[in-house]
């Protein structure tokens, strides 16, 4: 097995991390996928995501699920944490948050496939759970994205899980 190349990673192992509260995708970093010959999912569960309602300024809380099939590059998890942390003071609707996250990760690592799903806690008696996905054009992953989008909520969760 070849050794992972950590050249250029500035957040991993950094004991002097500065936490910034302004949205900035530049904090995201990648490393080389050591198993490019395989198709496999990497899944992140982020149970403490926070953003701000752009109309009221009230906080919104969610669990974000990011699943992707890497190609050549993979997102480094500490940089992802710092990136998501920066939404804390960012005013964006729920649907915007998942699409912004997905588009930033596509621009960063050009995955074969990615999906981002948020489970926002109810506010005003309504919970919002936006889902978005992407499959690399002209590959089997483009068709996979279409199918998963159409079937992503065939088995909705029970209301008692919040």
UniProtKB/TrEMBL annotation:
Superkingdom to which the source organism belongs:
Bacteria
**UniProt cross-references to NCBIfam families, sorted A to Z:** QueF-II (TIGR03139)
| EC number, as in UniProt | 1.7.1.13
Cell compartment(s), UniProt: Cytoplasm
Q: Which HAMAP family match?
A: QueF_type1 (MF_00818)
Question: Where along the chain is substrate bound?
Answer: 75-77, 94-95
Q: State the name under which the record lists this protein.
A: NADPH-dependent 7-cyano-7-deazaguanine reductase
Listed InterPro entries: GTP-CH-I_C/QueF (IPR043133), NADPH_dep_7-cyano-7-deazaG_red (IPR050084), QueF (IPR029500), QueF_type1 (IPR016856)
The record places the active site at: 53, 60
Catalysed reaction equations from the record: 7-aminomethyl-7-carbaguanine + 2 NADP(+) = 7-cyano-7-carbaguanine + 2 NADPH + 3 H(+)
Q: Which family does it belong to?
A: Belongs to the GTP cyclohydrolase I family. QueF type 1 subfamily.
The alphabetized UniProt keywords are: Cytoplasm, NADP, Oxidoreductase, Queuosine biosynthesis
Chain's gene name: queF
Q: Give the record's pathway.
A: tRNA modification; tRNA-queuosine biosynthesis
- Name where it mostly resides: cytoplasm
């Amino acid at each position: 097995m070849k050794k992972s190349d950590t050249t250029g990673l500035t957040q991993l192992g950094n004991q002097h991390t500065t936490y910034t509260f302004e949205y900035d995708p530049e904090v995201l970093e990648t490393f080389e996928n050591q198993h490019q010959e395989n198709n496999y999912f990497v899944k992140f569960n982020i149970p403490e995501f926070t953003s701000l309602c752009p109309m009221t300024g009230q906080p919104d809380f969610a669990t974000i699920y990011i699943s992707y099939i890497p190609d050549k590059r993979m997102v480094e998890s500490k940089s992802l944490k710092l990136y998501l942390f920066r939404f804390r003071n960012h005013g964006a609707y729920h649907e915007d948050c998942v699409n912004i996250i997905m588009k930033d990760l596509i621009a960063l690592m050009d995955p074969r496939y990615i999906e981002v799903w948020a489970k926002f806690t109810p506010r005003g008696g309504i919970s919002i759970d936006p889902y978005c996905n992407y499959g690399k054009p002209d590959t089997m992953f483009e068709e996979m994205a279409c199918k998963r989008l159409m079937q992503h909520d065939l088995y909705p969760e029970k209301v008692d899980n919040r």
